[in-house]
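Please check what follows.
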Amino acid sequence: MAIDMWSLGCILAELYTGFPIFPGENEQEQLSCIMEVLGVPEKEYINRSSRKKLFFDMNGAPRAVVNSKGRRRKPGTKSLQQVLRCTDEDFLDFISKCLVWDPERRIKPQAALRHPFVSSRRHKPPPSTTKATASSSSLSSSRTKQLNETPKKSLISAPTPLTARSARTTVIAGGPTTPSSSSHASATLGSSSRSYRASQTQGLSSYSSRTLSGFAVRDV
């Protein structure tokens, strides 16, 4: 339908610019936006409208509309190229054939498919595909490089735990001994010392007894 081709032209223009091509605050201003680009429609179309008095005066001239920002739009003061800010001739021609006042002269769907804007781009990849592929390859190579460099960092040995250091042997009197052998040596030395003191005490005691006995015999 002709109204669908009009909608297609408006949608493509908004997709390109990011803004509605005819940004009216109400019906009156929206028609002013359309006439600002396409000019005033022919009188035969105006006369066929059941609401023409709302938008046009008795002579068929557009009624003055001022928006909330105090702006008044004048018919035919902007071109489609100025509104879209585009220099692509195929795109501008396609949009201009969609946005025609007369529904009978508006481009038909079959003709739209044969238009250079559609037919010349049907089998072409978008321009950003190559850049996206290149960035993806660069990202993959950087990740692979990081993965390959990761094992090298693990070659640095970790510090020895405190428990491992405490279990090492110590050097006593020029030779390595373990804590158990050290305790055994201390126990042996203590036992020998006690035996030596006991034998000395026992000998002294026996000697004292004999000496005392000798004194006692002499006295008698």
User: Anything to note?
Assistant: Residues 167-189, 198-220 have pLDDT under 50 and may be disordered.
